[in-house]
Every structure is written in structure tokens, then in C-alpha cells.
Design goal:
Growth Hormone, Chain: A; 2 domains; single chain; mainly alpha
Length: about 425
């Protein structure tokens, strides 16, 4: 496969404008996270708890309303749902920027506006996760996903650096203002994406009925609920052991700079695997995906048992590559096997199961480390992570899920329903 063939999805007009919209949006988001943190610390005299309140104000409504967002994205054109959400995000971020720039921002104001932005994120996330099958032929889904991942990885490296320069040179409010303008530009680019109209339903159903319909599909699709159930535990372990205990463990072993190098090695592994996925077809998406994500258990184990910088960097590099294999495999499984009219709701149930577990790990692992020690908790967590991935693979529906036949040969943009698992 040539590089020109790897970029084939960009020949599709709808995908080209959507991709441009997402690149702009991702750049703004990667800058906003840094700018918001410094803005909160500035107005609260460096109170780290205050930043937690602002972040939680965004996360809680997003989690609570994800299912509703899935219903909206399956009921209305997904490009329109994303476009309206982007405009609402531009307004909320613009208000935050204005408050910070003028110096009248107070903590409660940022909490309230972050909550508004969380509601908007709940509406847009399922639509963004499920729109790709409507933008490219099935034969281009893997490459389209890889291009999205490539942009995301690159901008997560570039964005924070640009944001830091803006914060230092002009102040956090102006960096947030740039993010607000990025939301507006992203919405404008989406105006060039035209999706075919959906066939009207014979009978109008209520939101509750559509949620129930989505839940029925979710629980009857074995590979779907098995993986989400597994990640309910995996995300709790990863967020608690790696992101909560990791920095403290690193500070007393490899140092703060070493921790930064370890995280950078993971990002590089993810980025390089994304480039590979542009050219190498991924068969058995969940089998290879779960094997890939299981590698995240290795650096957790090493951080507890043998925190040597070079070894940890190698482990996180490999784990980053494995993470990208899972991300690609999961998106392909969802986009090829879930019916289009159910896809946003399936993604919303998936996200709900994943996001709910994260604060559990963040809260629980600190007391566990205090009671049993960093070494024991991290070693057990690393082993448990690997074992849970293998337990998920005990399900034949996960191991054997194939790429669909029409995803390996020229086909249409339509999405067909798979046979019952």
C-alpha cells in the first residue's frame, strides 16, 4: 500500500471537511486544558482543590447525560448535532475567557460554565464517535480512524506547548479565547458536510423507548457488553494505579523529569502505531485489540516492582502501541458491526461504562497505597490488569469477531446489521 492509498479517505469531500473541523477542534481542546488549569490556579491563589471542582463540574453532567446524547445522535443528523454543540461550546468557553481576561472571574462562575460545557460534551460525544461510517466507504474505515488518531496524537503534543506560550505571553484568558474561536471555526467547517437524509420512522418513539431499545441491543450483543464490563474494572485500575499513584511513585524513584519521559515514550509508541495502522489491515479487531491493551499492565507492574527509567520507557512505548491497536480495533468493531441507527446509543452505553469507573480508581487507590504500600498495590494492579484482559478474551464472541466481508472489498457507505452474536 502506497502513502497515497493511506490518505484515500481525504478524497471523500465529507470526510475532508469533517477532518479539518476535528483538527481545529482538537488543537483548541489540547490548548484549553492547560489554559483552564492556570486560569483556575490564578484566581484561587494556587488552590489545587479548586481545579478539581472545576474539572468535576464538567465530568459529572457529561456522564449523567451521555445516554441522552446517544439518543439525540441517533435521532438527528450527526453533523448537525456536532455543529450545534460546537457553537454552544464556543459560547461557554468564550464567557470563561472573557471573565478571566477582564479579571472578574470567580470560582463559582467557572464551575457553572464548566458544567454547561459538560452538558454540551455529553450531547456531542456519541455523535462524534459514530459519524465516520457515514463519511467514508467501509473499505476506508480503518484508514479514516487512523488519520483521526494521528491528528489527535500529534496535537496532544503540539497543543499544550502552544497553550503554555500563550499563557506566559498573554495570560490564560487569551488562550481560552483562542479555544473559543476554534470551536466556532470547527462549526463553520462542519457546514460543508452534507449527509443523506435518514428514512423517517414509521412510529415516533419517546426518549425512554429509545434508551430502552439501546439497552436491549447492548445487553444482547455479547462482545459489546463483555468488553465494556471489562473496561469498567480496567479503567478503575489504570486511572488509580497509573495516573493517581504513578506521579507520587515516580517522584521518589525516577523523578519528575523521568515521569515526563515515560509518558512521552507512551505517546511516541501510540503515534508510531497509528502510522502503521494506516497501511496494515487489522483483522480480528478485538482479539488483537485486547492483547494490545493488556500491555498497559506491564508498566504498572514495573513501576511497583522495578522502577528503572530505561525499562519503564521501553514498556510504556510498547504499551502505547498496544493502546492504539485496541482503539483501532474497538472503533472498527463498533462501526462495522453495530447498525447505524443504533451506533450512537451503543457508543453512549460504552462511554458510560468507561467513564463511571474512572473516579472510583482515583478515589480508592490513594487509601489503598497508604494502607498496603505503593509496591504491593502497583504490582497487584499490573497483574490484575493483564488477567482481566485475558478474562475478556475468554469470550468467544470477543476473540472471533471478524472484520465484515464488505469492509475488505469495495462497498457502499451504508451500515448493515450483523448476525446475532
Amino acid at each position: 500500500m502506497t502513502w497515497a492509498e493511506s490518505l484515500a479517505p481525504l478524497r471523500e469531500r465529507n470526510f475532508r471537511f469533517y477532518y479539518a473541523s476535528r483538527v481545529v477542534n482538537l488543537l483548541g481542546n489540547s490548548m484549553a486544558s492547560v489554559a483552564l488549569a492556570f486560569a483556575v490556579l490564578k484566581i484561587t491563589d494556587d488552590d489545587p482543590a479548586a481545579l478539581g471542582y472545576v474539572l468535576a463540574a464538567h465530568t459529572i453532567p457529561m456522564v449523567l447525560l451521555l445516554l441522552w446524547g446517544g439518543v439525540l445522535a441517533d435521532r438527528f443528523p450527526r453533523n448537525v448535532v456536532i455543529q450545534v454543540s460546537n457553537i454552544a461550546s464556543a459560547i461557554s468557553q468564550g464567557f470563561i475567557a472573557a471573565l478571566v481576561i477582564t479579571g472578574i472571574a470567580e470560582l463559582w462562575m467557572l464551575i457553572a460554565l464548566s458544567a454547561v460545557h459538560g452538558v454540551v460534551s455529553a450531547i456531542s460525544f456519541p455523535a462524534m464517535a459514530s459519524i465516520l461510517p457515514q463519511l467514508v466507504p467501509r473499505t476506508e474505515l480503518q484508514r479514516a480512524n487512523a488519520l483521526m488518531s494521528l491528528a489527535r496524537s500529534a496535537l496532544m503534543i503540539l497543543g499544550p506547548t502552544l497553550s503554555a506560550l500563550l499563557v506566559v505571553g498573554f495570560g490564560p484568558g487569551w488562550a481560552l479565547a483562542v479555544d473559543a474561536s476554534m470551536w466556532l471555526l470547527s462549526a463553520a467547517l462542519l457546514g460543508f458536510v452534507v449527509l443523506p437524509r435518514r428514512a423517517p420512522k414509521e412510529e415516533e418513539s419517546s426518549t425512554i423507548d429509545e434508551l430502552r431499545e439501546g439497552w436491549t441491543y447492548f445487553r444482547q450483543t455479547t462482545w459489546l457488553w463483555v468488553v465494556v464490563l471489562g473496561f469498567g474494572v480496567l479503567n478503575a485500575i489504570h486511572s488509580g494505579a497509573w495516573f493517581t499513584l504513578g506521579p507520587a511513585r515516580a517522584k521518589e524513584t525516577i523523578g519528575e523529569q523521568g515521569w515526563g519521559l515515560v509518558l512521552s515514550a507512551e505517546a511516541i509508541g501510540l503515534l508510531l502505531m497509528t502510522v502503521i495502522m494506516l497501511r496494515v489491515p487489522l483483522q480480528r479487531p478485538l482479539l488483537y485489540g485486547m492483547l494490545g491493551i493488556s500491555l498497559l499492565g506491564v508498566p504498572i507492574l514495573l513501576l511497583g516492582s522495578h522502577p528503572h527509567l530505561a525499562i519503564l520507557m521501553i514498556a510504556t512505548f510498547v504499551a502505547g502501541a498496544g493502546t492504539e491497536v485496541f482503539a483501532m480495533g474497538w472503533n472498527l468493531a463498533m462501526q462495522e458491526h453495530v447498525p447505524d441507527e443504533m451506533l450512537s446509543r451503543a457508543y453512549s452505553y460504552d462511554a458510560l461504562g468507561s467513564f463511571v469507573a474512572i473516579p472510583v480508581g482515583q478515589i480508592a487507590f490513594g487509601p489503598l497505597a497508604a494502607a498496603y504500600g505503593f509496591t504491593d498495590v502497583l504490582v497487584i494492579s499490573g497483574i490484575a490488569y493483564f488477567v482481566i484482559c485475558l478474562m475478556v478474551l475468554m469470550s468467544a464472541s470477543v476473540r472471533r469477531l471478524p472484520r465484515l466481508a464488505d469492509a475488505a472489498a469495495p462497498g457502499s457507505l451504508s451500515t448493515t446489521s450483523p448476525p446475532a452474536p
